[in-house]
From TrEMBL:
Recorded GO MF terms: gamma-glutamylaminecyclotransferase activity
Native organism taxonomy: Archaea, Methanobacteriati, Methanobacteriota, Methanomada group, Methanococci
Record organism: Methanotorris formicicus Mc-S-70
Signal peptide coordinates: none
Pfam families to which the protein is assigned, alphabetical: GGACT
Name recorded for this polypeptide: AIG2 family protein
GO CC annotations on file: cytosol
Family: Belongs to the gamma-glutamylcyclotransferase family.
TM annotation in the entry: none
InterPro entries to which the protein is assigned, alphabetical: AIG2-like_dom, GGACT, GGCT-like, GGCT-like_sf
Source organism superkingdom: Archaea
CDD domains assigned to the protein according to its UniProt record, in alphabetical order: GGCT_like
Ranges for domain Gamma-glutamylcyclotransferase AIG2-like: 4-115
């Protein structure tokens, strides 16, 4: 089993969650230990080399098949690139989890690092 940190359409309440993660164990809410930059244009893009904010998301325990299906969804490694990073869970526990990075900024900056904020702002 592997830990996967999701910050966009794979989070609970978003359109890809049920199709990809409904059978995976939810570990908890968390944020990245290090700062990155989140941009969004309908979907979110996290850029590794800009240090703007902690990225907010959820951690799941996934099996190899689920990770492969999500790799396909994310276009890993040609579009998004999956990399292990330290995540701080709400409990304070630190774990290593996979996160998908985009190679360059695209869309508008989400200063809070929370895709939920971007989606709420779009529907006001």
């Amino acid at each position: 089993m592997e830990y996967l940190f999701v910050y966009g359409s794979l989070r609970k309440g978003f359109w890809n969650h049920e199709a990809y993660l409904k059978n995976s164990k939810f570990v908890g809410n968390g944020k990245t230990k290090h700062k990155y930059a989140m941009y969004a244009s309908i979907i979110p893009y996290v850029v590794e080399d800009e240090k703007i904010s902690h990225i907010i998301g959820e951690v799941y325990e996934v099996n190899k098949e689920t990770l492969e299906r999500i790799d396909s969804l994310e276009g890993h490694p040609t579009c998004y690139k999956r990399k292990k990073v330290p995540i701080i869970l709400e409990s304070g526990k630190e774990i290593e989890a996979w996160l998908y990075f985009y190679p360059e900024p695209y869309g508008v900056l989400v200063k809070t690092g929370d895709y939920g904020d971007y989606m709420r702002d779009r529907h006001v």
